[in-house]
Amino acid sequence: MDNLSNEFVIDSVISLLEVLVVISIEEVPYTGIVLAILLKTVTHDRLIRILLILLVITLGEINI
């Protein structure tokens, strides 16, 4: 039972982190929030979600 609780907490923190990163980087964060929600429903792999967060941070720092 404790393992399920830990997994729920980790998934919740990753979801919150996704939303916070999208809000802090984009001027109009609606599309990023929708993409974060879609990613959560489509993939259950934590590593892919963490890598997406890092990608969003990296692309947000690059000024093209």
Structural class: mainly alpha
Order of helices and strands: HHH
Main beta sheet strand tally, sense and closure: none
State the helicity in percent bands.
Answer: over 70%
Dominant shape = elongated
Provide the β-strand percentage band.
Answer: under 5%
| Alpha plus pi helix count | 3
Number of strands: 0
Low-confidence runs (pLDDT<50, min 5 residues)?
A: none
In round numbers, the mean pLDDT is 77
- For the terminal residues, how far apart are their CA atoms? 48 Å
Name the descriptors.
single chain; about 60 residues; mainly alpha; about 85% helix; about 0% strand; elongated
Q: How are the secondary structure elements laid out?
A:
Blueprint: H1 2-25, H2 30-42, H3 46-61
What does this structure look like?
The chain has three helices and no strands. The chain has helices spanning 2-25, 30-42, 46-61. It is elongated and about 40 Å long. It is mainly alpha-helical and 64 residues long. Helices cover 83% and strands 0% of the residues.
Task: Give a short summary of the structure.
With 64 residues, this protein is mainly alpha-helical.
